[in-house]
Write a structure and sequence with these properties.
Layout lengths: L1 H7 L27 H9 L6 E2 L11 H12 L12 H15 L8 E4 L1 H11 L7 E6 L5 H7 L3 E6 L10 H7 L4 E7 L11 H14 L2 E5 L15 H4 L6 E6 L12 E4 L2 H12 L7 H12 L3 H22 L14 E2 L9 H12 L1 E2 L1 E2 L11 E4 L4 H16 L4
Parallel strand pairs: 1-10, 3-4, 3-5, 5-6, 6-7
Antiparallel strand pairs: 2-8, 7-8, 9-12, 11-12
Bound molecules: pyridoxal-5'-phosphate (PLP).
The site of pyridoxal-5'-phosphate (PLP) has 13 residues, from α5.
């Protein structure tokens, strides 16, 4: 400004017009959609007396011994960084816990502690997705995977799962979809948004074929304890011979109602963990320290709290299945895990339009199927992470409203 004034001989500085700087985002940002869940929740936040069947996190309280361990860690001054791979006590606890659960020999070097399964998935996908590499995922799918793949130039190949098949994954369809560009498959069982739990035969067939073809498997097993009908949970850790092409990802968020404490992990071969560990140092450095102490208490404490929570979710699952059956225009099935039902409206009905009108006219907030994929636009995701009383109250509103609809 002073220079400009000098040049023109003016005593007052001349006003120079500056262009407003525009944020210049990396074009990869375009791969990140506006989440369908947000759209609904934002609208619900402007309304009164809303019943949320849109919730994607546990509503049950975190068990007290876990909270105590968190507070004790804070009081003991555990507020610094941990080792980059994670708190040594937690690595040992996870090694022992998984070793016992799946009768599998692991070492601490097979494990990396992350800020939730979200960071673990971020590390796995963004360290490997690139142009020319295809990732197979289901449609519908948890909304994190496809944007992360596409942001890094990877290609997404969808395998539809269908309501008439209880959204089970057909392993033959998966194998037929594998080609020369296929780099990885992301498995998510129990599944968000469908609640489908894949049986051992499905997981074993896919794991075997991937090992044969050198295809990576990223298994998102965050709901691995929320299983209602089958004790034999088919983790990839149980179905694979070695870990060379496997990343098993989970967290404390759902099993122990610790979503906000942000601790998850990746289990894989030592070579993979070594590489991811370096990347992790450049993303979040380490997971939250007192939360990792809370995680040790969760794994080494009495597991009755988990069994109690599963019993509660099972009762709610049975309730929502019964209520969906009584609802005109909705066709359901029995989800085997997680806390989601994914019933369908008649074909060609726009689930988004129904979810929005239903929210406005009944005050029940659901998430439309198009938030999770292309082939399930006539579906609604209903979360049963809420009490049976709230579920009944919600359906007391939904059932008469649906009865009036002329689809
Ligand atoms: C399938 C799935 N994977 C991962 C996550 C994220 O879990 P975390 O809280 O461990 O980051 C969620 C959370 O809703 C989920 O549903």
């Amino acid at each position: 400004m002073a220079e400009a004034a000098k040049d023109t001989g003016q005593t007052q500085p001349r006003k120079v017009k500056y262009r407003k700087a525009k944020a210049s985002w990396n074009p990869a940002m375009q791969a990140i959609p506006v989440p369908g869940i947000r759209r609904m929740v934002n609208m619900a936040s402007t309304m009164k007396d809303v019943i949320h069947l849109s919730i994607g996190q546990p509503d049950l309280p975190t068990p007290k011994h876990i909270i105590d361990a968190y507070v004790d860690a804070l009081n003991a001054g555990q507020t610094g960084y941990t080792m980059d791979a994670g708190l040594p006590e937690l690595l040992v606890a996870l090694r022992d816990y998984y070793g016992k659960r799946y009768n599998r020999k692991l070492t601490r070097d097979n494990i990396l502690i992350t800020s939730g399964a979200t960071e673990a998935m971020y590390l796995a996908i963004t360290s490997t997705a690139q142009p020319g590499r295809q990732f197979i995922i289901t449609d519908p799918t948890f909304l994190l995977y496809a944007p992360l793949i596409r942001m890094n130039g990877g290609e997404v190949k969808y395998i539809p799962t269908r309501p008439e098949n209880d959204h089970q994954l057909d392993p033959d369809e998966v194998i037929r979809a594998m080609g020369s560009r296929t780099y990885a498959i992301i498995l998510n069982s129990p599944n968000n948004p469908t609640g489908a739990v894949y049986p051992r035969s499905t997981v074993e067939t896919i794991v075997e074929e991937c090992a044969y073809r050198g295809i990576q498997i990223y298994a998102d097993e965050v709901y691995d304890h929320l299983i209602f009908d089958d004790d034999d949970y088919a983790s990839v850790l149980k179905c694979s011979v070695d870990l060379d092409n496997i990343m098993c990802i989970s967290s404390f968020s759902k099993t122990f109602s610790m979503a906000g404490l942000r601790v998850g992990w990746v289990i894989s071969s030592q070579a993979t963990i070594k590489s991811l560990r370096r990347y992790h140092m450049f993303t979040t450095s380490v997971a939250n320290t007192p939360s990792q102490f809370a995680g040790v208490a969760a794994l080494t404490g009495d597991q009755q709290c988990v069994r109690d929570m599963v019993d509660i979710y099972r009762e709610r699952r049975d309730k929502i299945v019964e209520l969906i059956d009584q609802t005109p225009h909705l066709t359901g099935y029995k989800p085997g895990g997680a806390f989601f039902a994914f019933p369908t409206l008649p074909p060609h009905v726009d689930g988004s339009d129904v979810a929005l009108r239903m929210l406005k006219e009944t005050g029940v907030c659901t998430v439309p199927g198009d938030a999770f994929g292309e082939h399930t636009q006539n579906a609604l995701r209903l979360s049963f992470s809420t009490t049976c009383e709230k579920l009944e109250e919600a359906f007391d509103r939904i059932i008469p409203w649906m009865a009036k609809q002329q689809f």
